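Please check this protein record:
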Amino acid sequence: MDTVEQIISSNQKALQSETKSSAGDKHETGRAMLQLEIEKASQQFKAIRDMRMVLAKIDLAKESKTAHLGSVIETSSVCFFLAISVGKITAHGKDYFAVSVFSPIGKLLLGKHKGEEFIFNGVRTKIRNVV
């Protein structure tokens, strides 16, 4: 978040200091590019803020045998962490795939129990454990 905020601030300062030159079209193009960069960084900032809100909702102390936000789902091939989509993470020497409950695989896993199976991309996978 800090990096994105710095990018936004830097681009806003550059936009404010951009002075009209004799190369009018070049000036307008430069301003437009800075504005696009600010919009892009603002979208990234919103996405990060949204992810932080989802992470804040996770109660790691909550125990359930049903896959929910914050669950670790161990399958016959891989372990998933239902949280936000950040891809592969390693914790305590073990690899996990952090996926959003809104992602296609997250939607399949949500509500599943130990012993259930699901099919994703044509591959049948059995759930070994839900923590």
In short: The chain has two domains: 2-56, 72-130. The chain has a mean pLDDT of 85. The CA atoms of residues 84 and 100 lie 4 Å apart.
